[in-house]
Amino acid sequence: MLISAWWLLLLSIPVLLLGEFLVRRISFLSKYNIPAPVVGGLLVSFGVLFANLVGVELNLGSKVAAKWWTWLVTTEIEWAKVPNLDVHRPFLVAFFTCIGLNASWDLAKRGGLQVFIFLGIAAVMGVLQNVIGLGMAKLMGAPTLLGLVCGSTTMTGGHATALGFAGEFEKAGFEGAGVIGAAAATFGLIAGGLIGGPVGGGLIRKLNLKPSVSRETHLQMGETSESGIWQDFRALAGYGTKFLLHVFVLLVCIKLGSWISYGIQQIEIPRAGQESIKLVFPVYMGALLLGVAIRNIADAVKKGWLRTEIVDTLGSVTLGIFLAIAMMGLNLKDLAQAAMPMLVIVSVQVIALAAFTRFVTFRAMGRDFDAAVMAGGHCGFGLGATPNAVANMKALVERYGSAPRAFLVVPIVGAFLHDFVNAMNITFFLNAVK
């Protein structure tokens, strides 16, 4: 029995709420910052898998062709052909557009030179993750694209980037990229939460590092407000007409960005003695780039109408819905074929990141107490998520003392800047191995 993709859309909010409930109730999930939509969506995926194993044929559709739904994320040239697209694509593109709208040069400058140093370090690690992934895949005789999926796509990128690029990997010939990417990202999330404390704490104890400011300072910086889909909806409603303005800007970026992406996708790369190939360019990249441009133009004219907190909340909502739909639609049977090579590659990635943060991140960031805390934070977001980075750093400062510089630099890079850099990194490697 095939269940329409529209049911995935209708179930996305209930599944999100289910995930939030389970994360609040199960300490393991909250301890390692497993995203609520991943928890809820995987529960549905496992339910579908179980139904098929006991003889109930059940499949969840993931694509729709309704013109009213696909118009926003396609050019009129594509739209006229009534394309069959993933039902979650509007939310996927909206989320990455929000990343662009929050990529503020002014915000980066506020963190000083250390923001750019840390961004450079994170970018280098992202490249190394792709090199390691491709190298390990070749050594094991596994598909080349599996190595790239288990590189910065899932390690630094996490679930959102893994599922966001899944379509590009599948178009390049790697079936099951979504489910394998989700599994690798989940492994990375857990590993990032496990190694951050030992790496940062080990440096602090071995070198007898001391915080530069009073212990009480970190208490305010470590506070987090209650979050969840309903809280996000209430926050957006409270912004009133400013919320509507931001939605309008978001929709304009998505529509115009579809033309930018389409135009770049038509570029052909000539190859000596071979047929030229078209450039691989994610569908959301045009909207993301347009968002970056609009954000920095708005900052330059100093009008202050584009507010980070509204864009951030919109991004949180669209990411939650996108992840819930994408995780529900995963075919877990595809995971069996690549499970062992994936686990080997990701295990090597964890070891490599632990060594990199210990010997490179710590030294480049100043070899002091804050640098040790940042090394622990890099373990978190280098294996999947900025919340993991913050959780790692919070655990360290609660035990050893305050690190205000770390709490400024790591979230700025992890939440606002590196997703853009990583998307470019993945796109480059995807074109190189195509």
Describe this structure in words.
The strands form 3 sheets. Strands 1-2 form a two-stranded parallel ribbon. Strands 3-4 form a two-stranded antiparallel sheet. The protein has 434 residues and is mostly helical. The chain has helices spanning 5-25, 27-31, 36-53, 67-70, 76-79, 89-101, 105-110, 113-140, 144-153, 158-171, 177-207, 217-221, 229-238, 241-265, 285-301, 308-328, 335-364, 369-381, 386-400, 404-433; strands at 2-3, 59-60, 63-64, 85-86, 268-271, 274-278. Strand 5 and strand 6 (274-278) form a beta hairpin. It is built from 20 helices and 6 strands. The longest helix is centred in the middle third of the chain and has 31 residues, at 177-207. The chain has one domain.
Quick tags:
434 residues, two-stranded antiparallel sheet, single chain, two-stranded parallel ribbon, mainly alpha
Provide the fold topology.
Elements: E1 2-3, H1 5-25, H2 27-31, H3 36-53, E2 59-60, E3 63-64, H4 67-70, H5 76-79, E4 85-86, H6 89-101, H7 105-110, H8 113-140, H9 144-153, H10 158-171, H11 177-207, H12 217-221, H13 229-238, H14 241-265, E5 268-271, E6 274-278, H15 285-301, H16 308-328, H17 335-364, H18 369-381, H19 386-400, H20 404-433
Parallel strand pairs: 1-2
Antiparallel strand pairs: 3-4, 5-6
Helix pairs in contact: 1-3, 1-16, 3-16, 6-14, 6-15, 6-16, 8-9, 8-17, 8-20, 9-10, 9-11, 9-17, 9-20, 10-11, 11-17, 11-18, 11-19, 13-16, 14-15, 17-18, 18-19, 18-20, 19-20
